[in-house]
């Protein structure tokens, strides 16, 4: 899960010539792999998108080769809540927290969001959820989550880090260590955490507004971005990201941050520190590290790319095939 900004504003990526790393793939050979280096250590990074149409086949040759050249695979930043149960899954599994998805006192969305926002909600909801009554009882941000998931299903898209299971299978096949880079948040008093779970209403409502605004253009843009990603077309990805607004997964960030706040934890800094610690551990054991990062981070030099450059990594000048194992 990511908490990179609760309601992130869409930013315009730099032009392709300003990319922070060179591409080590030829055009149209599959998803891009970028390379960074810090002295003798190099990072081979697969740029990912949030949604793609994927077959169940092997990763593209460049991705497979990059993994095989690596000594370790570094996991993505995130947060593990409690006993390894992600909070969105936990909201379904913990009987005591199930009701936290819903508005209190029998209220419905129409009672807590402005009329103009509710009208937009009803219009877009009709396209993907029909007359689903249960979702009308949910907090605005969880209504946004359900609407987003329904849109993905209808368009045949898959969310998450592309090829995660295939990367894990290749790492296991070649006996490559996988490093967990997530922050593990220990819940000191689960009962109290449930009782005090609270998201500021303004942020809750704004999450729904932000999601609905992105869904005015993102369904078709997802198709365009997915196609460009699968072909390794960086110029097209750059243009698509610049001209469209995509959901920012604010329901995840707000949920994680609410739990962390109740525990007295500054989540963003803890997640960064956990990821950097895992990176340093990888550097101590291998000169070649494979990892993933969102294409938007690569183009905007944000998130994982900012953390990586903060550790002294810079764009490499040669491709992995030109360097020794």
Labels describing this entry:
single chain, alpha/beta, 14 helices, two-stranded antiparallel ribbon, seven-stranded mixed sheet, globular
Fold topology:
Blueprint: E1 22-23, E2 33-38, E3 41-48, E4 51-52, H1 61-69, E5 72-74, E6 79-81, H2 87-93, H3 109-112, H4 115-128, H5 140-155, E7 158-159, H6 164-173, E8 177-179, E9 183-185, H7 190-195, H8 201-214, H9 218-231, H10 234-243, H11 250-262, H12 267-285, E10 288-294, H13 295-300, H14 304-310, E11 314-315
Parallel strand pairs: 3-10, 5-8, 5-10, 6-9
Antiparallel strand pairs: 1-2, 2-3, 2-11, 4-7
Helix pairs in contact: 4-5, 5-8, 9-10
Q: Mean pLDDT, nearest integer? A: 79
Label the overall shape: globular
Q: Total strand count, please?
A: 11
- Residue ranges: pLDDT <50 for 5 or more in a row? 1-27, 318-325
């Amino acid at each position: 899960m990511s908490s990179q900004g609760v309601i992130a504003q869409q930013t315009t990526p730099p032009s392709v010539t300003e990319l922070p790393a060179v591409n080590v793939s030829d055009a149209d050979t599959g998803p891009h792999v970028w390379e960074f280096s810090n002295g003798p250590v190099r990072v081979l990074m697969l740029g990912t998108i949030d949604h793609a149409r994927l077959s169940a086949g092997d990763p593209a040759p460049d991705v497979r080769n990059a993994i095989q050249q690596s000594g370790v695979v570094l996991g993505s930043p995130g947060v593990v809540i409690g006993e390894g149960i992600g909070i969105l899954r936990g909201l379904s599994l913990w009987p005591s927290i199930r009701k936290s998805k819903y508005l209190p006192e029998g209220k419905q969305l129409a009672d807590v969001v402005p009329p103009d926002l509710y009208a937009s909600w009803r219009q877009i909801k009709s396209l993907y959820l029909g007359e689903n009554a249960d979702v009308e009882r949910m907090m605005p941000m969880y209504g946004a989550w359900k609407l987003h998931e329904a849109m993905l299903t209808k368009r045949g898209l898959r969310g998450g880090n592309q090829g995660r299971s295939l990367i894990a299978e290749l790492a296991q096949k070649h006996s490559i260590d996988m490093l967990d880079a997530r922050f593990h948040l220990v819940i000191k008093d689960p009962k109290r955490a449930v009782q005090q779970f609270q998201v500021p209403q303004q942020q809750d409502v704004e999450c729904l507004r932000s999601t609905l605004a992105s869904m005015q253009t993102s369904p078709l843009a997802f198709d365009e971005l997915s196609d460009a990603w699968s072909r390794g077309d960086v110029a097209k990805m750059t243009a698509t990201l610049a001209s469209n607004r995509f959901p920012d997964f604010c329901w995840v960030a707000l949920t994680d941050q609410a739990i962390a706040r109740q525990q007295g934890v500054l989540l963003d800094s803890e997640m960064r520190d956990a990821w950097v610690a895992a990176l340093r551990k990888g550097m101590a054991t291998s000169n070649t590290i494979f990892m993933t990062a969102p294409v938007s981070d690569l183009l905007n030099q944000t998130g994982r790319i900012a953390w990586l450059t903060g550790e002294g990594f810079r764009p490499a000048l040669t491709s992995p095939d030109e360097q020794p194992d």
